[in-house]
From TrEMBL:
Compositional bias ranges of the Acidic residues kind: 145-156
Region (Disordered): 138-170
Pfam families documented for this protein: YceD
Name of this protein: DUF177 domain-containing protein
Source species: Rhodocytophaga aerolata
InterPro entries according to UniProt: YceD (IPR003772)
Length: 170
């Protein structure tokens, strides 16, 4: 490769993820735009990954598409031996003919996925009734209980609770 900028584009999907053992991602479609800037001493790789991956909601077990839009940078410096310096900088031998970037793309996508996978309907704060009429999730209540709606509000309060209520009111 000559010392200049080189542009590459890759499209991929489920076949890409099937190449990785124990992959957390099975379905998805994405596009990678890679700009490789090569000089005498190093190569700078700029990744722009867009697309979506199919995830399973942790609460409802319903599949949904999670959008991916990632910009990452890797630097490969030329040296005498292969060595990883940081997450973004690696040293490679000068006579290296090929660099497999598939693992880097997979890791970038994997790191973009949130630990808690929630369906977009849940992220908005409500979830409608499903076909069977069962309410799956609703955030209509704030967790506070109105004193009017508590059962047996005519009965005197336990003194232990009254002390705690006084602390809350102060």
């Amino acid at each position: 490769m000559s010392n200049k900028k080189h542009d590459f584009e890759f499209d991929s999907g489920a076949a890409f993820f099937s190449n990785f053992e124990n992959s957390l991602i099975e379905e998805g479609a994405f596009k990678v735009k890679l700009t490789l800037d090569k000089s005498e001493t190093m190569m700078s790789l700029h990744f722009h990954i867009t697309g979506s991956v199919q995830l399973i909601c942790d609460r409802t077990l319903e599949p949904f598409d999670y959008p991916i839009n990632i910009k990452q940078k890797l630097i490969f410096k030329f040296g005498d031996q292969d060595e990883v310096l940081t997450d973004e900088i690696e040293i490679i031998k000068r006579d290296t003919q090929q660099i497999n970037i598939a693992q880097y793309i997979y890791e970038f996508i994997g790191l973009a996925i949130p630990m808690k996978k929630l369906h977009p309907k849940l992220a908005k704060g409500h979830f409608e009734e499903n076909e069977e009429g069962i309410l799956v999730y609703s955030s209509g209540t704030t967790g506070e209980v109105d004193s009017e709606s508590t059962p047996d509000s005519d009965e005197p309060m336990d003194p232990r609770w009254q002390i705690l209520k006084n602390l809350k009111d102060n």
